[in-house]
Q: What sequence folds into this?
């Protein structure tokens, strides 16, 4: 997205906001078509655009806008799937049931494969936190990142690992 357009919308320019919403709609719709489990694409996109119009002035970093919008769409897709299908793919009891069906050796192999499937930065965060048992502060110092960035990357790495394991 155009950083100048985002900055103008953040500053309160209504024309820039309208243009930003139009540009974002295309990308969000394309993302929602891949992310929504049911045909609630338009609703998910509308919720993301509504959130954008409400909170555009509160966005601290223009470069983070698209990531934030995609997260809103993904969250809405999951919420609508849970509501419509009465099924939550992230429900802890279901995750535990899947894990319980695997033998310890098969589970070790699955976790190793899941870690191997991660991008190198995500794998490094998981190893530092869960295997070397470092604190968030220690990881931040080691990687030269801020604490919020480490928390965000760790969350995303664990989410990717979970998605891989549930897909098995």
A:
């Amino acid at each position: 997205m155009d950083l100048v357009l985002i900055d103008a919308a953040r500053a309160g320019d209504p024309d820039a906001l309208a243009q930003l919403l139009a540009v974002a709609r295309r990308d969000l719709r394309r993302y929602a078509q891949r992310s929504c489990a049911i045909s609630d694409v338009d609703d998910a996109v509308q919720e993301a655009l509504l959130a954008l119009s409400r909170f555009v002035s509160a966005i601290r970093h223009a470069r983070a806008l698209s990531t934030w919008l995609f997260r809103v769409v993904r969250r809405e897709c999951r919420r609508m799937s849970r509501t419509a299908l009465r099924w939550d793919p992230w429900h802890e009891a279901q995750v535990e049931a899947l894990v319980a069906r695997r033998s310890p050796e098969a589970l070790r192999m699955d976790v190793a494969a899941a870690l191997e499937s991660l991008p190198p930065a995500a794998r490094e965060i998981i190893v530092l936190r869960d295997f070397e048992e470092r604190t968030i502060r220690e990881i931040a110092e080691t990687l030269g990142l801020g604490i919020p960035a480490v928390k965000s990357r760790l969350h995303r790495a664990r989410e990717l690992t979970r998605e891989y394991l549930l897909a098995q």
About this structure: The chain has a mean pLDDT of 83.
